[in-house]
């Protein structure tokens, strides 16, 4: 029976590890990136919700909605939304908020955009009926 030489090592599997380790790291980075994008998406929804709520009230203007959007962005966005652009439009019938931003990328060369658009009818006041 032949015994292996004591200084000889078995290198089987080291090639597979050299290929698998970077792929596993890339997979983990993609999962974290997807979670970061999901968080940014929810943050963008919250910003547009606050801006729309402010812009659609009966006595509000588009500037009121824009101010609410900027305040919400300062409060919520932090480092998760970059290149943030928010537009608030208000007509006598509808209010519309459009947001676009980028999510910082952990994977070089990939772009992770976030877009949100919400619209709703403007609140109207009606005179109260007599006797109610």
Automatic annotation (TrEMBL):
Matching entries from InterPro entries are given as: TadE-like_dom
Q: Species lineage, top-down?
A: Bacteria, Bacillati, Actinomycetota, Actinomycetes, Streptosporangiales
Q: Name one Pfam family in it.
A: TadE
Protein name, entry field: Pilus assembly protein
Segments forming domain TadE-like: 15-49
